[in-house]
Structures are given as structure tokens and as C-alpha cells.
Amino acid sequence: MFMPNRKILFRLQLAFTLAVCAFLVVPVVLSILAGLTVNYFAGLSSGLTLRWVFAVWDGYRDTIFLSLGIALACLLITLLLGVPTAYVLARSRNRMSRLIEELLVLPIAMPGLATALALIATYGTLGGFRTSWAFILIGHVLFTLPFMVRSVLAVLSAIDLKTLEEGAASLGAGFRQRFFDIVLPNCRNGILAGSLMVVTLSMGEFNMTWLLHTPLTKTLPVGLADAYASLRLEIGSAYTLIFFLMIVPLLLAMQTISRPRTTRFISDDPDNTLDILPVPETKK
Amino acid sequence: MNFIPPKPLSIRLQSCAKTFADGVRVLEPLDLHINAGETLVLLGPSGCGKTTTLRLIAGLEQPDVGGKVLFDDEDVTPQSIEARNVGMVFQSYALFPNMTVAENIGYGLRIRRLPTAEQRSRISEMLSMMRIEKLADRHIDQLSGGQRQRVALARALAVRPRALLLDEPLTALDAQLRESLRVEINLLLRRLGITTIYVTHDQTEAMALGDRIIVMSHGRVEQTGTPREIYHQPASAFVANFIGTMNQMHGEMKNGGFACAAGLLRWPGKATAANELLFRPEDVSVVAEHEAADLVGTVAAAFFIGDRTRLFVDVGDKQPLVVESMARCTLQPGQQVRLQVDPRGLLAL
Predict the structure, then answer these.
(1) Which residues in chain A have their CB less than 8 angstroms from residue B165's CB?
(2) For labelling alongside A189, which of A50, A280, B34, B237 has CA 20 to 30 A away?
(3) Cα-based torsion angle of the residue sequence B23, B27, B28, B32 in order, rounded to the nearest 10 degrees
């Protein structure tokens, strides 16, 4: 009596899970297919084509390059600003540093529109600046910097940075040597994770960019909105497909990095001459 | 083994006090002389200022204004730790996780820009001295606690430091490993003849390693002396109770002895005004019925430890006496016991 019940329960659960998955995945598949079908409204029977992808490439290739350019510039700036910031915050754990850490998160908590309006109100009158892509870049840096700081800080807080640096100093290493030999290599994973996050977020940012852009400085997501609004659904979908192809490898890389490292502790010394008594290390 | 330590260094602290930014004074003005080549142990409970003293010597902390740190008559107070050329071993070892064992040991040599060939030969010299040749290419997270300890020592010694500073280096290890490493560190320090300052809260470690011990408490020096002096002639009640086990008997001088509730203790010297005498458990022995006894008490508890039996004897004082007796002792709680106290072990503070 008990076993069949369990089987039925399992099947119900499986069905429910699959239904939820389908609910989420089907739109993605449809969107991709829409970008590759000759006529979406006629259905797949109208045939598959790369025509729309090429149309996007012809009409919007600038937006792709601009988005890539802004994402990389944004990464460079957040690295130069964010890593030292995280280091200082990690070294000085006091009320002030906590406050700064909280303040840094504000641009994420605020609606992107509000940040953009503030930027326009303040710098909108600087003609050359307003119309340059650097204006969008500023917005993206504001938005992505906390992610860089946080992911580096998380790694730095997990290691005893102060003692590591004192150890290096006792061996004669000055500040610069300590920073490049000890601090940076030991927060490598945090920097990598932060970098991927920054690039991904900058590439996909629409909220703020939509207000900050000019007709000559359109990023990919802005172009995408433009395409959906003014052109055939197939072109918009093909555009989404291109965005997908650019962003998915980044997301996969991010997953790989954030996976916890498998511990490589070798428990038994084969020749065991090292500890006179092979006693396992006590946990603190 | 061709490790040639540089000429040993003598270290002096002159009225070094330390007050932290929040106004807490962790170290009262301290004068200290560490002889060239000796092993000095700073011993005390946590918060006694021993680690701060070590950090002042290392250059990781600056003394309050007026304090001076001298290395052989050279004033190094303004120098940072990078310039002092001292080897340091931390409680957590502070090994660099991004480097292999060999790279850790060679880091100080790389900083000093030694020729690659010499770096390599010194690294292998250190690896063989600490018997960790096989670990050279391992990463730190692949090492056991004892192995990390060896790497930390090798790394500190590789740069041929003028002095070796050890901050509770064995505390993170379990008891058995701690004991074997203690023996090994002792042999190593004797062989190298390097000036060493060793911070610990473990009196056994202090006794085993120190040429001299400085017992500290609440930012002050309680006593300075050899392990024997500290153990047999404690200068204060704090030292007496912190080091080993100490029995206390209350009473007063009477009839040429010290009269207390359970009998009369033979007192060899001049009469003392003290109303409390101290003595170690090993200075008390259980005597047979027909022998003369100083004290008579009742066994409160008996613990068989293996090589001996530890007795707690009620003698009508505040605390029962601790008596180390032979392993074959068969006394049971409630039985009467006759005790003799070696007068040479009696202390009046």
C-alpha cells in the first residue's frame, strides 16, 4: 500500500517540476525560433532562415560593438576602483567601513531611472560629454562597482589578510610587493567573479541606459527595444538570439568560478616521516 | 647541514609601553634585555601583554612615545618590520595559500633578489633541515598542521634572520604533535644558536624551551628567571599559582615550626610573619604508621594516573592538599594519611 503511494507522489512531483521548467523554457525556445523562422505567424512550416540575423547585423552591428566597448571600459574602471576599495574595506573593519560598504550598494537599490535622471540633471548640459558614450559608461560604473567590491571583499574577508601581510612584511616585502604577491593572487577568484558580473550586467543594462543614450550612442539592449518597437518581430527575436550567444558563455564561466573549490588536502603522507606521530590535525 | 646563522643579536627594550588607540593600556613601561643567542620565553595568560611585547620587538607595533627598541645598541624603533630582518612564526602560520611550499620558503629570498641558484640551494637546505623535501611542490591546503608548522619555521629561517620570533607556534596543534615538535624546535634552536623570543601561555612549553622565562600578567612583568628559579622560587603568588600546582597551608609560626590545623610544618629558616606557606605536590610524601609525620589528614579523592597516584588530602584548610604518591598507593577516600613535607620546598611569600 505504501510503495505505490510513493511512486504516485514522485510522478506528480516530476510532472509539476517539468511543467514549471516548460513554463520558463518554452518562451526562450519560441523566441529563438522566432528569430530563425521565415514568417513567425505562419509558423515553422514557412521554413528556417538566417535572414533576420543578417538584417540585425546590418542594421545594429554598431550597438553590439558599443556594448562590448562600454562593458570592457566599465570592467577596467571597476577593477581599478573596486579592487583597492575592497582591500581598504577589508583591512579596516570598523563602523566607517561598514557605512561605506552600505552606501556603495545604493546605486543597486535605487531605480536605474532615478540614477539616470540625476546624472542628466547634473551633467546633461555638458554638451560633448552628454552625447559621448562616456556618459553611459559613468552610469554603468555606478551600477556595477558594488558588485566588483562585494565579490572581492567576500574573498578577502574569508582569509586572514592582516596576518598574511604581516608574514610577508616579516620577510622584507614592502607594501607594493605585498599587494601584488599576496593580496591580488589570493583574491583572484573574487576578481574573476566580479569581472564576469560587471561585464554581464553592463551588457544587459537597459533601465538607465535608455535615458542616458543618444541616437548615436545606442547600446545593444536599447537597440533591441528599438527593433521590437519599430521592426518585425522576427528581427527583434534574431537580435535577442545574438545577445544570448554573447551572454551565455559569460554566465557559464561565472558558474564555473563560483563553484566551491574541491579541497585538495592529502590526508595520508605515503612515507609518513613528517609528523613523528601521524595524528590528524585538530579542528579549531 | 651548512646553515650558518649570523652573529647572534642582543635585544633591548627601554621603557616600552603600549596604549592602543581606544585608550586601553596593554603594556606598562617595560625594560627587557635579551642576551645574544638565548631563548627567552614570554609566558602568561591571554591579555597579559606577551604578544604585544613580541610585536614591539618585531616592528609590527610601535611603542608609546619614549619607548625604544635596540638591536645590539642600534636604535631600530623607527624601522618597520620589513627593515628589521627578523624571522617570525605566527600562531596561524600565515603561509601564503597562492604559493607552493618551496615558493613560500623562497619568498623572502626573492624579495632580497638573491641569485636564482642561491635561492634554490637555500630552499633545499631549509627543506632538508626541516625534513620536508617531499612536500616542496605541495600547496599549503595539502599540508597537515605539523607540516605547516615546519614550513613556517623554514620560511622564517631561510632569510637568515637576526632573531627568531615565535608567537604561540604550537597552540593550533594537538597535544601529542605539540610535544614532539617542541622537542624538535628545542634541538633546532640549540643547534642554530639564534636569539629567540617565544610567546606561549603553556608553562610546559616555556619550561622545556626557555633559557629564561618572563612571566607576565596584566601588562607587567611578574618575574624573570630560569625555568628552575621560576618554578622553585616564585616571586609572587601569581607566578606560584600560574606555574605548576601549588599547595597552600594557613597557620602561624609557633614552637620553631609552622603550626596549622593538621600539624606542625618544620620551618628551616628564621621565623616568618607569613600566615601562609606554599609547597609543591612533589615535596610531600606519604609516610608509614611508625614514621614521624608533619601532617595528618584524610584522603578526599585519589586518582590513578598510571605512573603515580594523585591524592587530594583534606587537612582542615580551605583547599585540600595535592599529593603525588607512588602508583602502587592503595589509599581510598576516607582513609587517614600521614604526610611529611620536605622543609626545603616550603615557601613564604
Answers:
(1) 170
(2) A280
(3) -150
**Angle at the Cα of B92 from the Cα atoms of A277 and B155, rounded to 5 degrees:** 80
H or E stretch covering B5: none
Contact indicator for A148, A83 with CB cutoff of 8 Å = yes
Can you tell me the distance from the alpha carbon of B27 to that of B18, in angstroms, rounded to the nearest whole number? Answer: 5
Query: Residue B96 CB: number of other CB atoms within 10 A?
Result: 21
Cα–Cα distance measured from residue B302 to residue B310, given in angstroms and rounded to the nearest whole number: 6
- The CA distance from B97 to A156, in Å, is 13
Q: What is A232-263 written as a DSSP string?
A: -HHHHHHHHHHHHHHHHHHHHHHHHHHSPPPP
Q: Are B41 and B213 in contact (CB under 8 A)?
A: yes
Interface confidence (ipTM) of the complex: 0.83
Chains A, B: CB pairs < 8 Å: 106
Total residues belonging to chain A:
284
Shortest CB distance from A173 goes to which of B82, B85, B180? B82
HSE-CB at B203 with a 13 A cutoff on CA atoms is: 15
Side-chain-side CA neighbours of A124 within 13 Å: the count stands at 12
Tens digits of pLDDT across chain B (349 residues): 455 556 788 999 998 889 988 888 898 898 999 998 899 999 999 889 899 999 999 999 999 988 899 999 889 998 999 899 999 999 889 999 999 999 999 999 999 998 999 999 999 999 988 888 888 899 998 888 888 989 999 999 999 899 999 998 888 788 888 888 888 888 888 888 899 999 999 888 899 889 999 999 999 999 999 999 999 888 888 898 888 888 888 888 877 788 888 788 888 777 677 788 888 888 888 888 888 888 888 888 888 888 888 889 988 888 888 988 876 777 888 888 888 888 888 888 7
Let me know: does A214 contact A61? Beta carbons within 8 Å: no
Q: Do A282 and B180 count as a contact with CB atoms less than 8 A apart?
A: no
Nearest CA in chain B to A188: B98
Cβ–Cβ under 8 Å, residues B333 and B299? yes
